[in-house]
Design brief:
Blueprint lengths: L1 H20 L2 H8 L3 H15 L4 E3 L4 E3 L1 H26 L5 E7 L1 H18 L3 E7 L13 E5 L7 E15 L1 H7 L13 E4 L8 E4 L5 E4 L3 E5 L2 H9 L5 E4 H9 L4 E3 L8 E9 L7 H13 L4
Parallel strand pairs: 3-4, 3-5, 7-10
Antiparallel strand pairs: 1-2, 5-13, 6-11, 6-12, 6-13, 8-9
Helix pairs in contact: 1-2, 1-3, 1-4, 2-3
Amino acid sequence: MARNETNRLREIEVFVAVVEAESFSAAARRLRMTPSAVSKLIARLEERLGIPLIRRSTRRLQITAEGAAFYESGVRILGEVAAAEREAAAGAVPRGRLRVNSNVPFGHHWLIPLLPKFQALYPEVAVDVVLTDHVVDLIEERADLAIRTGPLKAPNLIARKLIQTRMVVVAAPSYLRTHGTPKTPADLEGHRMLGFCFPRFFEGWPFVDESGKPIIIRPSGGSLINDGESMRLAALAGAGIARLSHWHLRADIEAGRLVPLLQDHNPGDEETFYAVYVGQGKYLPARVRALLDFLVANVKTG
């Protein structure tokens, strides 16, 4: 079907060229074809339509009434195809609406603060931001781009790495004054450990003991929260001990609002953030490519 449609368009292009050049030979030169190839295409077109379009003589070509009507339609069709191609090519300039799905911490601390800079660079792109820590289906959500962490299980997702940062356990000074400061992972028993209400997080918090042996402590005794930014706020309020990415907490730690805990038992594990999208990278719309490259260039752990 695709090849047949392509041949039909070529036949129209050749017919229009013959009419405008008033000569098979001149049309052939214009199209870089042989006169015999031009003649065969016109004959095939006439045979398929079942009507004569051109009356041939040794001295000149005469366009039939049907040929004249078909010429007008052909010019219109070729014009519409050219306009469609120009419109598609204009897609190389970033413009249009772009839907981004991000987890809440990245959205609050990176994506939304960077929007003014992106909009200044690409004023014709309108960004729709949806924040959730739930993993969503990009196709069902009609998302052009998503920010995710951890392993990517969907085989149709292409990923660009944005940042990689270590994990840190923290608590507010107010919490530590009331409940004490744990010195070892075992001391966490009885503390309010804030956990995520996602099944993928239930494996627990990794530590190393005094001998360097890996151990896992499961969060217990504290609230379960569905996004990282809310967990940060809960920790700041003194609701319990949290474990989050260092970049997410850096300003709070530097200001003394949160205190790192159990640093000697930190295994050094890291969390990686990716920008992901469906399909093959070389076919990305310009608006998606623009934001993707912008995030890679501007998101830094500091």
